[in-house]
Design brief:
The complex is a heterotrimer.
Chain A: H1 2-7, H2 9-19, H3 24-39, H4 46-62, H5 66-87, H6 90-133, E1 137-140, E2 143-149, H7 154-171, E3 175-182, H8 188-204, E4 207-211, H9 215-224, E5 232-234, H10 237-248, E6 250-253, E7 261-264
Parallel strand pairs in A: 2-3, 3-4, 4-5
Antiparallel strand pairs in A: 1-2, 6-7
Chain B: E1 3-7, H1 10-27, H2 31-52, E2 55-64, E3 67-76, H3 84-87, H4 101-108, E4 111-117, E5 121-129
Antiparallel strand pairs in B: 1-2, 2-3, 3-5, 4-5
Chain C: E1 6-9, E2 12-16, H1 23-39, E3 44-48, H2 57-72, E4 76-80, H3 84-93, E5 101-103, H4 106-117
Parallel strand pairs in C: 2-3, 3-4, 4-5
Antiparallel strand pairs in C: 1-2
Helix pairs in contact in C: 1-2
Classes of the chains: A alpha/beta, B alpha+beta, C alpha/beta.
Chain lengths: 267, 131, 121
């Protein structure tokens, strides 16, 4: 079998490259790896698998479908079959069955590697999205805010929590506003995470206000029986900021239409 | 790699925290997850020390597909826990602690398994996966 | 066993925990601190845990006990510098340290004590 593959290398690879959408160099390299594996008795497939994983990964990244990716491997069967038919020896045909089985396995392996690579891409993107969607902004000296927008899941709320607490240490801010104006719904788990954030901030020596609570959300929270206890909640970010100003001893004065003077008082 | 420790004094509890920390870093747990699993380990081995006078800890790196995690097994040959449900309730204790050790540790990890036979001892297995 | 030094600054006592304490050292610190509050007539106690990487229920309970003890001895206690990871873990553990005053760092802790104690120095 190996002999036949070796003798007709040029012909088979050319035929293969014609039938599938893949660069000839890549296929030749793969062909030689398969040949090597067959000549060694098919025991050690580590190199071959490495090659296929690389092929699947690059294709997953570029956007080929998984079927296209594994078809590239299956295409070798068709290309080689032409040689086998020309030979028409039963021994060779039997060998071809074994060969076909090997190629099937390899094709399925590509499929798996492809799925894995795709999953990794999705995970990376989810992580990037998390980073993007949770900014901690400074509202005033000593006052931070986290404007949350979109659906909150457990993972995202946890990231917010960690980022906010770290920002408290970095900036030395003693007040924080968690604004949920842009959050469509709050479930038990998310509410628990928000509460935990407030408690953790307290342990560190900072006070959190939760703002942007819409009537529906207030209704859900009360219906779910979640105790907010002595945690300060405000309907708007402006109210929360005013509260934080009062607590930190900042006084805002002046005629709103013309100009605003802000004076900080030492606590 | 498996790491093992025997807990016979409160100094050993400190050593366990150090041991679990190095394993947690090796597995790639985030700083917060490191802190959680070390704290859970501290609670569990102290429980073994308080209730059984002596305990053993095994730390293993475990894998599940692409995920890696840390598994701790804390084993003692103490009096055992007659009512597990009750023991996991916050505030419940037969000792002098706060009664947060078991229930609290369960919240700090991803998987929690408690096996106890009265008179024969207790084995707690906890796992934390890297995110 | 590690003994944590207790520093005096005006009518404040300052304790900075720099190493991972075993339970015995934690209990000793608790006793030393109570004795020091009385013998030195301190009005405030600051416990700096910014270097502490792990606070389990035992250490957490010590912090709460110290705060309660200080109140009985007519002093205020503040825990300063708790790390985010430690704070999250304590909340998850179910330890909210109610009754313990906290501040982000030593400086803010001192300011808080001056504020609540109304101590004229």
């Amino acid at each position: 079998m190996g002999e036949l593959l070796r003798d007709h290398e040029e012909q088979v690879v050319n035929r293969w490259a014609q039938s599938v959408d893949a660069p000839r160099d890549e296929l030749l390299e793969l062909y030689r790896a398969i040949l090597g594996a067959i000549e060694q008795g098919g025991g050690d497939l580590a190199d071959l698998r490495g090659l296929l994983t690389e092929l699947s990964r690059s294709r997953a990244r570029v956007g080929y479908s998984p079927a296209e990716t594994s078809k590239a491997v299956f295409g070798l069967k068709g290309a080689f079959y032409e040689i086998v038919v020309a030979d028409a020896d039963t021994e060779v045909l039997r060998g071809f069955i074994r060969f076909a089985r090997l190629i099937d396995d390899l094709g399925l392996f590509t499929f798996e590697a492809y799925a894995e690579a795709r999953e990794k891409i999705i995970m990376d993107q989810a992580e990037q999205l998390l980073e993007l969607s949770t900014p901690v902004v400074k509202l005033w000296d000593g006052i931070l805010a986290v404007p949350l927008i979109g659906t909150l899941d457990s993972a995202r709320t946890q990231v917010v929590m960690e980022k906010l607490l770290e920002a408290l240490v970095e900036t030395g801010a003693e007040h924080a506003v968690i604004d949920i104006t842009g959050v469509p719904a709050v479930d038990t788990q998310v509410a628990q995470h928000l509460l935990k954030t407030v408690f953790a901030a307290r342990l560190m020596g900072a006070e959190c206000v939760i703002s942007g609570i819409r009537p529906q959300i207030a209704h859900t929270i009360v219906t779910l029986g979640i105790e907010f206890g002595d945690i300060v909640t405000k309907t708007s970010l402006a109210d929360a900021l005013a509260h934080a100003f009062r607590r930190s001893g900042v006084q805002v004065s002046g005629r709103p239409a013309t100009h605003v003077t802000v004076r900080a008082e030492q606590a | 790699m498996t790491r093992e420790a025997v807990i016979e004094s409160s100094a050993d509890v400190v050593a366990v925290r150090r041991l679990v920390r190095s394993a947690a870093i090796e597995v790639g747990l985030s700083l917060i997850d490191q802190t959680k699993i070390i704290t859970a380990a501290s609670e569990l081995v102290r429980n073994a020390l308080v209730y059984a006078g002596r305990g053993e800890l095994r730390v293993d790196v475990v894998e599940n597909g692409a995920k890696r995690g840390l598994r701790l097994v804390v084993n003692d040959e103490g009096p055992g826990i007659p009512d597990i449900e009750q023991a996991l309730t916050d505030g419940w204790t037969t000792g002098t602690g706060l009664g947060l050790g078991l229930g609290g540790s369960r919240r700090l990890v991803d998987e929690f398994d408690l096996l106890s036979k009265p008179g024969q001892g207790t084995t707690v297995t906890v796992t934390k996966w890297a995110r | 066993m590690d003994r944590v030094p207790i520093l005096k600054l005006g009518d404040l006592l300052i304790v900075s925990i720099q190493v991972d304490l075993d339970d015995q050292s934690v209990l000793v610190l608790q006793e030393d601190l109570a004795a020091a509050v009385v013998s030195r007539g301190a009005k405030g106690v600051i416990i700096d845990i910014s270097a502490v990487e792990i606070v389990d229920s035992f250490t957490g309970r010590m912090l709460a006990t110290i705060a309660a003890m200080c109140r009985m001895l007519d002093a205020h206690a503040v825990v300063v510098g708790m790390r985010p990871a430690v704070a999250i873990t304590l909340v998850e553990l179910g330890l909210s340290l109610g009754g313990v005053r906290t501040a982000l760092d030593l400086e803010k802790g001192v300011a808080l004590l001056n504020h609540v104690g109304g101590t004229a120095r």
